[in-house]
Amino acid sequence: MVMASAGVNVPGGDEVRNPTAASASTPECRMRRRHRLEPQGSGDAAAAAAPGPSWVRRLRPAASRFSPSPSPSLSPSSSQSSADRPNDEEQEELDHEVEVELAPAGPQLEPGEAEGEPEAEAVAVAPQVWPVAFGSLSMAGRMRMMEDAVSLHPDLCTWAADGSPMHFFGVFDGHGGSHVSALCRDRMHEVVAEELAREGATFLRRRQESAASGSAAWSERAEEERAWRAALQRGFRRVDDMAALACACGRVARPSCSCPLAGTSSGIVGSTAVVALLVRGRLVVANCGDSRAVLCRGPAGTPPVPLSSDHKPNRADEKARIEAAGGRVVFNNGHRVRGILAMSRALGDRLLRPEVIAEPEITVTERTVEDECLILASDGMWDVISNDIACNVARQCLEDGNPPPADPTAGGGGGAPAAGVVVVAAREAEPRCLRAASLLARLAIGRETQDNVSIVVVDLKHRD
Amino acid sequence: MVVEMDGGVGVAAAGGGGAQTPAPPPPRRWRLADERCDLRAMETDYVRRFHRHEPRDHQCSSAVAKHIKAPVHLVWSLVRRFDQPQLFKPFVSRCEMKGNIEIGSVREVNVKSGLPATRSTERLELLDDDERILSVRFVGGDHRLQNYSSILTVHPEVIDGRPGTLVIESFVVDVPDGNTKDETCYFVEALLKCNLRSLAEVSEGQVIMDQTEPLDR
């Protein structure tokens, strides 16, 4: 029944779209996206300027309007390539269309979570619908300057192969100044989206060539991963190139900026970057520096899964790379490249090249229905909160809707009580992701972290 | 590799002659900021004349040099600003100094985040505008550079047929607990190289800006 009705609607959609010029619809989509992004920008600014909640909302892939359009053109070619995967993909596409039909007024889905029908539908089709909800919090902590930045861009773009939404989340921990982390916050998602579009086009072309040649070597999964990795690598490189042109006033220009700050404060300024792309049932994480991404798997007691590895100078392979580049690691209030910088990879930091590079390490992880949440945070949190404790705190916040005891001991050793100043007063109405992030931040402050703290919590489960 | 001036073996004493040093010491090898070769004769002579340190057993000493394509008066005008090191030093976020720049002045330097210290208290030991010599001593702060003292000299030269500047900076410092002399020299040299490279960029940038101004101005 559902399949049949969806099938009937697809041609209808085409007929409706035919009179409209393709070029005309594109600006509307862009305007819609730009409009959607504006509140998030202000939210980020609020988080960076003063401690406080940032933009929070729950998303479902079905809310995307881009999925119907690729379906007709893709179905014939996908059916020709292989028997099993096209069916799965078609089912996902059909599910999206069903969701759209059930709730044709898109805006109604975005403000809240009260709709009963979408949730019921989502429950019925799980695990083929991959939910995403998120919250974040940043605070300066005991540092005088706030140099962290957070970037939240759900529904950043769609993957060319099947129109699946791609969600972007990033944490950037600046040092020596804030303009490189601010640059990452403002530009990284745009650059990555451009590279994903480029890689998507390449992917489609290669798939067609493979199908035409009758090659049996084509692996959809491997090729997709290759494309996503390439897009992230190029994205990081492009933002790092921009950092070299960035003035301390925040402008990126060639020739050099002519403001009074030009030429100064441009040497030892850089940022970490940990970025997560969520697409269908996969988590793609790119990391450069010592921020971190951790996957919290259920049920309670399951060990957390690190999705990134900190780039510390005394990590054996990093130390070897540094020394091969002619540098040295010297202990100076911690292991440091040249005795100066406590991380081995960062965007910016021109004066510490070639030892300090901006190349990300990328992991691709398959989601499971048991996954609880994804945590991205700067080392201001990870220095004082272990992966286990962070996951337990987040899990309890997300499951119960109520904060757990101030210092949970499950899964980790007892730590110092969170006796610090209460920076954020949790409100009952706030989404649980934000509550998890704010509780983790409060715990980090209570444990006397000395650094800025930035935390993004992404809920990977449907919760009533 | 860096040859440390340690163990009391320093450069030849002024006027000492052969009487004090029976056997002449091997020639000193200094590492240039951007070149891995011996200093040329002129540079070695500058070091001998201006950069005398007498490190003790627990100290190390070394020097770095940088050739800058900018006239000497421009470079000196930057380095002599004891009250505003952030003009060219990439590690400095803020500096406070009261009164005029004179021998004995003390400045409070705030260091940028992410680096192994947050502040440094520094005293101006010598400022010679005729010979273009600047000497600074660290007298406080949360860094690990105890009894740090540096000498910076600026010398005119010609690079590619244009006025250029040779900058030499030498230092002596205690070796912190847990580090070797070699490590300490390497670290301080790394700091000084960053400073000199940034100084070169700022100076040469100003030269470019000057050259683009109208000729009739």
Automatic annotation (TrEMBL), chain A:
**Top-level EC class as recorded in UniProt:** hydrolase
Write out the entry's keywords from A to Z.
Hydrolase, Magnesium, Manganese, Metal-binding, Protein phosphatase
Q: Can you tell me which residues the record assigns to a coiled coil?
A: none
Ranges for domain PPM-type phosphatase: 133-460
What does the record give as the reaction this protein catalyses? O-phospho-L-threonyl-[protein] + H2O = L-threonyl-[protein] + phosphate; O-phospho-L-seryl-[protein] + H2O = L-seryl-[protein] + phosphate
Q: Which GO terms describe its molecular function?
A: metal ion binding; protein serine/threonine phosphatase activity
Q: Where is this region: Disordered?
A: 1-98
Q: Where is the composition biased (Acidic residues)?
A: 87-98
E.C. number: 3.1.3.16
Q: Show the Pfam families listed in the entry.
A: PP2C (PF00481)
Known Gene3D superfamilies for this protein? PPM-type phosphatase domain
GO BP term, example: regulation of intracellular signal transduction
Cofactor field: Mn(2+); Mg(2+)
Low complexity bias (residue ranges) = 61-84
The similarity annotation says: Belongs to the PP2C family.
Protein known as: protein-serine/threonine phosphatase
UniProtKB/TrEMBL annotation, chain B:
Q: Which GO terms describe its biological process?
A: abscisic acid-activated signaling pathway; response to water deprivation; seed germination
Q: Which family does it belong to?
A: Belongs to the PYR/PYL/RCAR abscisic acid intracellular receptor family.
Q: Which organism is it from?
A: Zea mays
Q: Which Gene3D superfamilies match?
A: 3.30.530.20
Q: Name one GO molecular function term.
A: abscisic acid binding
Q: Where is the signal peptide?
A: none
Q: What is this protein called?
A: Abscisic acid receptor PYL9
Q: Does the keyword S-adenosyl-L-methionine apply?
A: no
